[in-house]
Amino acid sequence: MARLVYQPQSPLNATLAVSKRWATSLGIWGVGAGTAALFLLSVTPLVKREFLVKVPVVGSYYEDKTPASDKPF
């Protein structure tokens, strides 16, 4: 029969072990939440002007090409 031996673990090692275990999952959820928030806020002019226009590949899609004479304000 195998014998189990208790090996104490320092709080720092325990914290690092838990952090390593959850880092990938939390990273994936964070990217998903950020993408969802950006998608939901993409209709606001501030997000379009300050963030989405500056994205290298899709920035031209979000540029406002409406002439100034056609804007009401």
UniProtKB/TrEMBL annotation:
<protein>
    <recommendedName>
        <fullName>Cytochrome b-c1 complex subunit 10</fullName>
    </recommendedName>
</protein>
<dbReference type="Pfam" id="PF09796">
    <property type="entry name" value="QCR10"/>
</dbReference>
<dbReference type="GO" id="GO:0005739">
    <property type="term" value="C:mitochondrion"/>
</dbReference>
<dbReference type="GO" id="GO:0006122">
    <property type="term" value="P:mitochondrial electron transport, ubiquinol to cytochrome c"/>
</dbReference>
<dbReference type="InterPro" id="IPR019182">
    <property type="entry name" value="Cytochrome_b-c1_su10_fun"/>
</dbReference>
<feature type="transmembrane region" description="Helical">
    <location>
        <begin position="26"/>
        <end position="47"/>
    </location>
</feature>
<keyword id="KW-0812">Transmembrane</keyword>
<keyword id="KW-1133">Transmembrane helix</keyword>
<keyword id="KW-0472">Membrane</keyword>
